[in-house]
Amino acid sequence: MTAAAEKSSGHRLLVIDDEAAIRRFLHSALSSEEFSLHEAATGHAGLSAAAAFRPDVILLDLGLPDLDGIDVIRRIREWSQVPIIILSVRERESDKVAALDAGADDYLSKPFGVGELLARIRASLRRAATSESEPVFASGDLLVDLNLRRVILDGTEIQLTPTEYDLLRLLISHAGKVLTHSQILRQIWGIAHHEQPHVLRVTISNLRKKIERDPSRPKFIITEPGVGYRLKTAE
Q: Where is the DNA-binding region (predicted)?
């Protein structure tokens, strides 16, 4: 992940397309204060970028040189519910049905207009936002606005990296319940990191330093020894 991506406050878009001309067109049309773009030219590169870049929306071509786009959708859906919009020259109904059945959220045939693409991206972002069970999580002096991606501790906004925020959001979505190390690793980093618990320990440590008054005696993120972590809710 680039430093620019970590610092960006806009929605993150991942473009997976082997056509350089299409990537240049999308970069020119969508790069703005509202969006930050990351590009991948192959299916495998796209899967790695999806785990590292943590996009809010993925724009995916089906005709990739190394993996079919349908396989890319299935691989991502093993660990993420990020909105996926298909951009493809395949116009047959069977192709659209296969992509949507595999887990894609929308389908736009090439060539397409920028206005329609932007409308579909905004619609995907709205659906993702409203799918949260609660828009605001509050426990003690910690407040997290899930719609605005804001984390506030005792009235002061806290800056988290995308991965730290995604981890906190996952814990909030299961607040009060124990999440195992494996469940968290699959959801946040993907199956490639399933056996790398040190990655989780480091990120939990960094997150605690930002939201806990005393990270050595956490009151929000509770360790369940040998099992995982639990976000403690207000009594």
A: 134-233
